[in-house]
Amino acid sequence: MATMAQAIRMALHYGEEHLGLKDVFGEDVGQPLGGAFTCTQGLKTSWNSPLDERGIIGAAMGLGFAGSRCVAEVQFCDYIYNTIDLLKLAGNACWSSNGDWNVPMTVMTPVGSGIRGSIYHSHSFDATMTHIPGWKIVMPSTPLDAYGLMQACLKDPNPTMFLVPKALIRVRGEELIPGEPENEKELRERIDAPLGDRSKWRARWPEGLIDLEMPLSQAKIVREGESLTVVSYGRTLPLCVQAADQLREEGTTVEVIDLRTLWPYDWATIRASIGKTRRAVFVNEDTEVTNFGEHLLRRTVDECFYELEARPRLLAGEFLPGIGLADPLEAASVPQLHHIRDLLREVAREAA
Amino acid sequence: MKANPRDPSASRAPLVQVEGGAKFRLAPEIVLKTHDLIVRSRCLEERLIQMYKQNDGYFWIGGPGEECFNVPLGLNVKKGQGPKFDILHLHYRSSAILLAMGAEPIDSIRQMKNVATDPYSGGRNFSNHYSRREWNVVPVTSTIETQYASAIGSGIAHRREKDSITIVNGGDAGTAEGEFASCMIWSTRPREELPILMIVTNNGWGISTPSSQVQGAHRISDRGKAFGMKCGTINGMDLDEAWYGLKEYMDYVRTERKPALLEVMVTRLYGHSSATGANLVGGEADPLKALEAKMARAGLLSPEEAKKMYDDYTQSFREMAKKVKEEPMPDPSTIYDHVYHGQKGRYW
User: DSSP letter string over B175-237?
Assistant: First the structure.
């Protein structure tokens, strides 16, 4: 099975061949590295940009204005903060021109903890990004979804932000991407750049890759359950699944929803699930104050209050300036499996 | 006493004065056409200022004092939609450019009055914040210098075209922002040069701060030398100099497919914006007066004819403003329209 990095690579290749993708760029995105996390190895349209995040986002905007489809990468979201006003401008171009202009562009950036990235390689960006209107924002938790959501971003006429949970970027999926070789070794040999001299290397892309036609704004129910609903995305999603599987042995069935698209999000799926379970927990790892989960929590209270049998809860990262490097510090700063499992158990058992 | 070369007020002087000859290099019909657009632009800006002062608009910002350069720019754009035409990343002193491209003055008045019929923003944005996709005018922003970052991208798209170019303009104060450097760095990458015409209209001010307090460079255009760019400074107060200076740089970018940095010395006749009063500032040279004096000497236009033209446009725009006052304000139910292309933005 492909990793998320390989899945993104294949989606971008598909985009080059079939979706009009003409430029994939950012720091170290072109040869020889093909991206800090190898997501852009072997692509024919990838190139290295100056080390200039504002230039990268601006270039993507200008290409969008010119009607030329691109994917711009900021190597870590920790370094995207100096582009906030450009992200705002990309997001407001359609609105401020009263619909005259639209800016098709995709920005990809790795987010979150999980690789012992210390203070400046562990930031989350979902809370900040969901404060910027006009963007569509996705965050996959599986390689298959990464493949499909990237294709969806490449087809959308608006600015799209593709957040890559870096803790999951080398995790192999459980579902085969259509067209992907079943043999992992074959896939590696085809599309992973070799160590050493890569000057003559060319990717041998799998034939038969297709457009998954995965829509944006559609959440996925990963585990069905009756006892409570947990909504998550990115790194914490598989932890929620693990927690749900453990609690199932205790007789608690947790409905796990992978939000996948953070904005515009799939409220209908969340609403229906909470209507069924009457208990809700939201989990992500961005800092807890003005967290995106707080919005979901507020909407849950606004619209579901009289149906709820327990307090809806948010489990998020501690409100800290950064993630400390040492294992105990990182583990105490962002939700871990036991935090999630304990909270799910607590909410499931809270008296109605 | 020897002039201090780092004092821009000293170096500006010879570049914002118009020599007193009577001969134009430009053909008479071009001078007359350009003058007409300059007067039209000036009268429009003055009407917008009046509207602000009469509480028919909330904020004015514009470009009186830049017209002798901006009108030639608008007239020389390869106008159209898509990358086969020039793409313009303009700032908020560009009304003369738009008028020269063919924009209707009443639409600027509509934006000033923030009525629903404002074609540039539907009543959402300040005056001089243009947007016109059919002419590749990307939305003008209030943020300073960000247009030099987005210009990089259309420059990349234009690199794949034959004769269309990216045009970006901004003021002198904004060159302190990082995007100005970004544009030079990206557009001069070896073997990847971008056809971008970077224009800096230097009026000597950043809101209320004189550039001599905050900019040490003798010429802003000198910064292009470090990148091997064609770069230079021209007098934007003289129609001939502005027209031919612009043409030289524009033709270079169009044919050589490389970037150029053009600094244009201009004045700021009504201050930064309504935030600083929008009153006529004493001591700032007026390019229109100088042009008309020269046209009179050349026998192209008498002072009486010039006054009549000014009065006629002033009256015409006064009438337009009255008409626009009767037009509907935006419907509040439309606030979520166009958050996305073809989609409202209220959460789903």
Answer: GGSHHHHHHHHHHT-TT----EEEEEEE-SEETTEEHHHH---S-GGGGGGGGT-EEEEEETT
Supply the DSSP symbol for B138.
P
Alpha carbons A225 and A241: distance in angstroms, whole number:
11
pLDDT digits (tens, 9 = 90+) for B183-228: 999 999 999 999 999 999 999 999 999 999 999 888 999 999 999 9
Length of chain A: 352
- Judged by DSSP in three states, A22 sits in strand
Helices (H) and strands (E) in chain A, counts: 11, 12
What are the tokens at B258? 């490389």
Q: Tell if the CB–CB gap between A98 and B338 is shorter than 8 Å.
A: yes
Q: Taking CA atoms, what residue in A is nearest to B118? A: A98
Rounded alpha-carbon distances, angstroms, from residue A216 to A109, A136, A174, A326, B221: 18, 8, 21, 37, 46
Asked whether this complex has an ipTM greater than 0.90, the answer is yes
Contact B148 A58 (CB under 8 A): yes
CB proximity B344 to A under 8 Å: no
- Which 76-105 residues of chain B touch chain A by CB within 8 A? 82-83, 87, 89
Residue A264 and residue B347: Cβ atoms within 8 Å? yes
Cis, peptide link before residue A264, omega less than 30° from 0: yes
Q: What is the pTM of this model?
A: 0.96
Tell me if residue B77 falls in helix, strand or coil: coil
List the single residue in B87, B146, B166 with the smallest CB-CB distance to A89: B146
Chain A residue at shortest CA distance from B142 = A89
Interacting residues of B327 by C-beta distance below 8 A, sequence separation 6+: B110, B113, B115, B116, B117
